[in-house]
């Protein structure tokens, strides 16, 4: 009896880990398709990107709104976790900030489409926006403080203001293929450098 219980427990653990990995794969695929084609992209495109059937996506995310919300939360978490990881990777704090802002721009380009898709449910959208602010502003603040302490950027920059500025530069990127927010964001980030 004791032999069968541990075996049952072990059999259950890999399945849960596999299910988590499968869901992460679906969310990564959906995010990539949303960045390339917008949140209204066909589910079959997401399934193809993930290497699964459409039924698998619907099993995990019964509605498009469920998928959009899951992608939003997944991307917020990935962006939040990336900040400390970039600093720990040994790059200069300014380089870590630049790399993090690139990830943040990827998220924002997707987020604007997600936001438009979720506007019909203002309470849900407001809750997601609060989640976004609560998770990402402290990460940006930490990166700014590290770069300022290293003398690489001006001191006293506010994370929320910087993130709002970057967000404003990203608005409209999905509606105008000639507009490249990355170029303008790169100019903004270069302007943070300490003179001399």
UniProtKB/TrEMBL annotation:
Pfam assignment, any one: TetR_C_43
Signal peptide: none
Residues of the DNA-binding region: 42-61
This protein's UniProt keywords: DNA-binding, Transcription, Transcription regulation
Residue span(s) of domain HTH tetR-type: 20-79
SUPFAM superfamilies the UniProt entry points to: Homeodomain-like (SSF46689), Tetracyclin repressor-like, C-terminal domain (SSF48498)
Keyword Ribosomal protein attributed: no
Protein name: TetR/AcrR family transcriptional regulator
Organism: Nonomuraea typhae
Taxonomic classification: Bacteria, Bacillati, Actinomycetota, Actinomycetes, Streptosporangiales
């Amino acid at each position: 009896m004791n032999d069968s219980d541990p075996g049952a427990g072990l059999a259950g653990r890999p399945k849960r880990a596999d299910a988590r990995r499968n869901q992460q794969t679906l969310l990564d695929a959906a995010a990539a398709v949303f960045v390339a084609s917008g949140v209204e992209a066909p589910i079959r495109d997401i399934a193809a990107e993930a290497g699964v059937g459409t039924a698998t996506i619907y099993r995990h995310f019964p509605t498009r709104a469920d998928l959009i919300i899951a992608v939003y939360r997944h991307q917020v978490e990935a962006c939040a976790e990336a900040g400390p990881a970039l600093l720990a990777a040994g790059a200069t704090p300014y380089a870590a900030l630049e790399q993090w802002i690139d990830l943040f721009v990827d998220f924002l380009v997707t987020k604007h489409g997600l936001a438009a898709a979720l506007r019909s449910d203002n309470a849900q959208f407001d809750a997601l926006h609060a989640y976004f602010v609560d998770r990402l502003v402290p990460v940006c603040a930490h990166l700014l403080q590290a770069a300022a302490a290293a003398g690489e950027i001006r001191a006293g920059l506010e994370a929320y203001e910087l993130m709002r500025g970057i967000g404003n530069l990203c608005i409209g990127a999905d509606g105008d293929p000639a507009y490249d927010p990355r170029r303008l964001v790169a100019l903004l980030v270069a302007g943070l450098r300490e003179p001399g």
